[in-house]
């Protein structure tokens, strides 16, 4: 499996994969593929944090980290939100640094 940065040419292949991944999920509004499209156009989008997994040159999964702020009555904390296909949610992800090139999936 190769994990690489997603490119704009990959978007049309990722869209139906996201749609299919959430199709039978009970707690889904089945609009996740549109949310990913919106995130890509947002200020929070960081291309280096949008990754795809390929097996034999075929895209099999996508992971997207987005910048967010967690706000409570005392403070605002910068953080990252993670979007990952349901089929891959049991994979352990270790972030070794704040740089996407240092994300290790085991």
Q: What does the model show?
A:
With 106 residues, the chain is of the alpha+beta class. The protein has a single domain, classed as Aminopeptidase, CATH 3.40.630.30. The chain is 21% helix and 37% strand. It has helices spanning 11-22, 32-41, and strands at residues 2-5, 50-55, 58-71, 76-84, 93-95, 103-105. The strands form two sheets. A four-stranded antiparallel beta sheet has the order 1-2-3-4, covered by helices on one side. It has a two-stranded antiparallel sheet with strand order 5-6. Helix 1 runs antiparallel to helix 2 (32-41). Residues 93-106 have low confidence and may be disordered.
Short description:
This protein has 106 residues and is an alpha+beta fold.
**SS class:** alpha+beta
Mean pLDDT: 77
Strand content: 35-45%
N→C terminal distance: 11 Å
Unreliable segments of 5+ consecutive residues? 93-106
CATH architectural group = 3-Layer(aba) Sandwich
Task: Please count the helical segments.
Answer: 2
What composes the largest sheet?
4 strands, antiparallel
Secondary structure: elements and pairs:
Elements: E1 2-5, H1 11-22, H2 32-41, E2 50-55, E3 58-71, E4 76-84, E5 93-95, E6 103-105
Helix pairs in contact: 1-2
């Amino acid at each position: 499996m190769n994990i690489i940065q997603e490119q704009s040419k990959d978007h049309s292949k990722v869209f139906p994969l996201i749609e299919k991944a959430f199709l039978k999920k009970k707690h889904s509004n089945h609009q996740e593929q549109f949310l990913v499209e919106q995130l890509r156009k947002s200020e929070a989008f960081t291309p280096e944090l949008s990754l795809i997994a390929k097996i034999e040159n075929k895209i099999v999964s996508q992971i997207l980290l987005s910048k967010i702020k967690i706000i409570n009555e005392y403070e605002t904390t910068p953080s990252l939100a993670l979007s990952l296909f349901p089929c891959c949610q049991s994979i352990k992800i270790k972030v070794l640094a704040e740089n996407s090139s240092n994300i290790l999936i085991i």
